[in-house]
Design a protein that fits this description.
heterodimer, A: 301 residues, mainly alpha, ABC transporter involved in vitamin B12 uptake, BtuC, two-stranded antiparallel sheet, 4 strands, B: 244 residues, alpha/beta, four-stranded antiparallel β-sheet, 9 helices, 10 strands
């Protein structure tokens, strides 16, 4: 029981962090950033030295954790900001569909860049091996990593909330997310806010990369895309642009996946994802605007 | 020297010309109403001044600086505060947060922080209802209260010029009266420069100040709102009657 709860929370954490990264950017520029998953993949690969050999040559992965964590977060933030400056800035006034296609294209560019440097074979790495040690809580044996994932996610969520609520920059980001043009008319600098959103989103991608990399122990070009799909669905269910909604829906999706894994009859388990997506369709039928509709996107009366 | 000067401004939306070679200027401390029927180009003009709508031709100067084609945030930093049509409060932010969004332009030292605090107090003095609900969501305010909030929000940036687009939009007449009462009192008290777009010229004649009447993207009348011809002359200009 406790095991299931922790599984749900740790899977939900990944989805929630992913969804948050997408929602942050959607909030300020109405861009659905499909390149987000590839930023995650990039962050994982940044741990390895570029080589097409089957054996992974660990590079940054050897760093002690207090250097490793900031390194990966910075990689994510850096790449994300670079994407904004090089690509998305040119599409600032384009319609959302055009921006979305551009993000698809950019995602592929990043993915094939990684492919070129590292080849498509999944490689195994042992990232922070100490974390896979099981620990015992209330009679349940849990990997320490799972606990750290949950605690780290909570810390990130609380930190982000405080940042958005208590700082000047957070206030400007929230105002810009709701009504970008009005915020600019009040002197809020568009470029600064958008770059801030990309940096935050990229750092979140880095956090996911760290968690996912140490959970699976493999590095794979496709790894970002798999989380990205669920995270994207979470942002839609949560109400596009609503940060709280994205987090909530991320955890719900994680919980739904884990609960169905446990509760479905054994024969039906391989089709778990079909049930999860079925639930997604049901939610959207009843609440097409998402669980928590974002104000900026709501129809004006 | 004039605070705001427009020369030969033309605004186009693809093939439609919304504003055609409009020029006017206003001096510090002035109240200027721009009135005219729907589609006269009033709002386009205001949005162009704020930098949200691009100008096809012509030049806009604010306090001697050329602001044509500048980003809205830079124009705001030069001293223009815009109160757009439909008010556009940040509904998910609290009232106090709404008031503070525009104060990021000031330097972040102790004196300017103290100034922001006293500005906030002054806005609360003028609109006590905002103080009572300072931590409430701005989206929950009534239309009239929202109008007061956005005027307060504009004041918080200590602008040289406040541009207001249709403050009466969607408000009951007696609420509109209240909004104008406060606005005019504030103007007298702080020597504000106000550029107000209104559809009805009756309000301008009631309040006084200067009035520009636009029709079909051009200025048809410009003068003192109270003495600007008889009611009939205004009507003729407004609706475009020919003499007969």
């Amino acid at each position: 029981m406790l095991q299931t709860l922790f599984d749900a929370l740790s899977l939900g954490s990944l989805y929630a962090l992913g969804a948050l990264g997408i929602a942050l950017i959607f909030g300020v520029m109405r861009l659905v950033n499909f390149a987000h998953g590839d930023v995650i993949a990039f962050c994982v690969f940044a741990l390895l030295w570029p080589s097409t050999d089957a054996m992974a040559i660990v590079f940054a992965g050897q760093l002690p954790w207090y250097l490793l964590v900031p390194f990966v977060l910075l990689c994510g933030a850096g790449l994300s900001v670079l994407c904004e400056i090089v690509v998305f800035r040119r599409f600032r006034n384009a319609n959302p569909a055009t921006m979305m296609i551009a993000s698809f294209a950019l995602g592929f560019v990043i993915r094939y860049f990684l492919l070129m440097l590292y080849s498509s074979r999944p490689k195994s790495i042992s990232l922070l091996p100490a974390l896979s040690q099981p620990i015992e809580i209330f009679g349940a044996r849990l990997p320490l990593l799972q606990l750290i994932t949950i605690v780290a996610t909570m810390a990130i969520l609380i930190g982000l909330t405080l940042f958005l609520r208590q700082t000047r920059f957070g206030l400007e980001m929230r105002a810009a997310a709701e009504n970008f043009s009005m915020a600019r008319m009040l002197g809020v600098r568009a470029n600064r806010v958008i770059m801030g959103a990309f940096a935050l989103s990229g750092a979140l991608a880095g956090a996911i990369a760290l968690i996912f990399g140490s959970q699976t122990g493999t590095v794979d070009i496709q790894m970002g895309a798999s989380i990205m799909l669920m995270a994207f669905i979470a942002t839609v269910i949560g109400g596009l642009g609503s940060l709280g909604g994205a987090v909530l829906a991320g955890f719900l999706l994680g919980a739904a996946s884990v609960v169905m894994q446990v509760a479905l009859p054994v024969d039906a388990r391989p089709f778990r994802d079909a049930f999860v997506y079925g639930a997604v369709i049901l939610v959207l039928l009843f609440r097409p605007q998402g669980l928590i509709a974002a104000r900026g996107t709501k129809e004006r009366v | 020297m004039s605070l705001l000067a427009l020369s030969d401004i033309t605004i186009r939306y693809s093939r439609l010309t919304a504003v055609r070679e409009v020029s006017f200027s206003m001096t510090e401390g002035e109240i200027l109403f721009i009135t005219g029927p729907n589609g006269a180009g009033k709002s386009s003009l205001l949005r162009a001044i704020a930098g949200v709508t691009p100008v096809a031709a012509g030049k806009i100067q604010l306090a001697g600086q050329d602001i044509t084609g500048q980003a809205p945030e830079n124009i705001a930093r030069l001293g223009l505060s815009m109160v757009p049509e439909g008010r556009e409060v940040f509904g998910s932010l609290t009232i106090e947060e709404n008031l503070l969004v525009g104060t990021g332009m000031q330097a972040r030292d102790r004196t300017s922080r103290a100034r922001t605090a006293s500005d906030l107090e002054a806005v609360y003095m003028t609109f006590p209802i905002l103080k009572d609900r300072r931590n409430g969501q701005a989206g929950l305010l009534s239309g009239g209260q929202q109008q007061m909030l956005v005027i307060g929000r504009a004041l918080m940036t200590n602008p040289r010029l406040i541009a207001i687009d249709e403050p009466s939009l969607g408000l009951a007449p007696n609420i509109t009266d209240q909004v104008y009462e406060r606005l005019i009192a504030l103007q007298a008290q702080r020597q504000l420069t106000l550029l107000i777009v209104e559809q009805s010229s009756a309000r301008a004649m009631m309040v006084g100040g200067r009035m520009i009447l636009m029709r079909g993207g051009q200025i048809v009348l410009d003068g003192d709102a109270r003495t600007l011809g008889s009611g009939e002359a205004i009507q003729a200009a407004y609706f475009g009657y020919e003499d007969h």
